[in-house]
Amino acid sequence: MAQLKMYWINDKEVELLPLPEGYSFSKYKDESDKLAWVECCKNGLVSDEATEAQFDDSILGIEACDPYDDVLFLDYNGEHIGTITAINHTDLNMGNMHMVGMKTEFRGKGLGKYLNNRCIHKLSKEGVRFIRLTTDEWRKGAVKSYLTSGFVPVQYEMGMEERWGKVLEEYGIDSVDMLYEDCTLYKKIYRESLAKKVRIGVVGCRRGQTMLNYCKTGFNAEIVAICDNAPDFLNTAKEKYGEDGITYYDSFDEFIKHDMDGVVLANFANEHTPLAIKALKAGKHVLSEVLPCQHLKEAVELIETVEETGKIYAYAENYCYMPAPREMRIQYREGNLGKFEYGEGEYVHNCEPGWHGYTNCDPDHWRNTMSAFYYCTHSIGPLLHITGLRPVKVSGFEIPFNDRMYRMGAFAGAMAVEMITLENGAVIKSVHGVGPSRNSVWYSVYGSKGRLESAREDAEKGGVGTLYGNLDENEGDNTFEAKEMRTDDSLSTLAEESGHGGSDFYTMYHFVQAIKGNRNAEIVDVYEAMDMFLPGHFGYLSAMNNNCSYDIPDLRNKAERDKWRNDTTCTVKEKAGDMYIPSYSKGNPDIPAEVYEKLKEKLNK
Domain boundary at 134, 149, 165, which? Predict the structure, then answer.
């Protein structure tokens, strides 16, 4: 788990505290001081077995550190009993409070404040803009002394605000300011019992269970309203979540009047956009399930509503937050992959075993009428989210309608493939569909320094929870050394019980953080959502037109939007009107009524 980070801002004069009788400060003088340093740091910062080598790693290993000037000792009657290192990173205009330790018999005497004060005084006189330190929750006395000395928490990784809420609760501190890494104010944060929770309403009791369960944990949000037009689902939700503080609705128009901060749309995929627009106009932030829209007209209307209202729209593309692609994004953003060159994403799912339950054996259900290109964002989305690059061109290829799709009563091709060019010239390949004989969720990305790749489901360590890295330190090293990489982070334990490999937790967490004003919240905004959707839409048009290449519009640009604002091309008849296209590029196959009767028999068993 990542350490806590704290800053002291150099905006005030610092006076040296008068030391108690018998105490004094001295500086590191020679090799003989190393053992004294180790003794001061034992049981807290270094192990009992540590030797002078630990000093070499922790002090001499820092280029900016001059031990003869930066390593300070607190002495009692001439004996080194505490230590602190004050490093001035002049190139960053930043100080670093480092390796603070006190001999065991001198702990709990309030002496830490003198170490902190001496370090702050030295670095502030040297003119640093701020002083940084890292620590852990379990170092309770140290954390409290840092807070007392004027250090404040830093929001640099997800989960920090909640972790600090627990720390403040333990110390009985009502609130403190929290900063971003650039020293600007994030906001005032509160102890756990005083922190205000974000009020959430959920539409759709079936898929929405994940979001409901997240809120019921009491982490940083609470459920205040639930809406579903299916009485059975609504009653089941009442039994599961109770009616204490939760209002239930069977009408969205009534639901949207409820006093709440954000709305989660987990209704039918072809109905998200109209409800999202209503919610945004009603002053609610929106988290929308897959897909963001049905056609280009809806896309334009949604984007312009987000812009007009200023409300948060987050797209719940949960596969972006699967363990492997989540870590891939971190590695890429830190420069470890180098320049992005090529990527592949797969989301293929043999849905035959449960399809009759998903569609209720209705030939007009949206799942039966969607094209093979429809569910593209599970495969394309993570690659775009990793890189932050926009797709600009696509060619689409359709895998033929097969016996499995016939038995399922679905009218589309079994799978789809898109070859997509990104704005930097890199290429990605996306494979997705519901009609293969086997499943695959898999991602691979190539950069100028190597490759990152999730495990295949058939591998011994299968699945998208496992990540392998084969990376060079510098371009051209060609070391060819693959290793399994860690994919956990500060939120992994909390996310364990959530669906889709924990990724459902992250979509909700980042949405809530965005509502709370955290600019580091990693949401998929409305523009990125359309970047994930459009390659599938135009990929299908390509497949219908001899696989020719189609340009992908940038809907951030109003002039581009104007070209598409009346385009209703899609596979849903009532939405498409006279722009209706078939679910299968060669024309909808003939699926007789008896197929659905057989599925109903299966459903009723």
Answer: 134
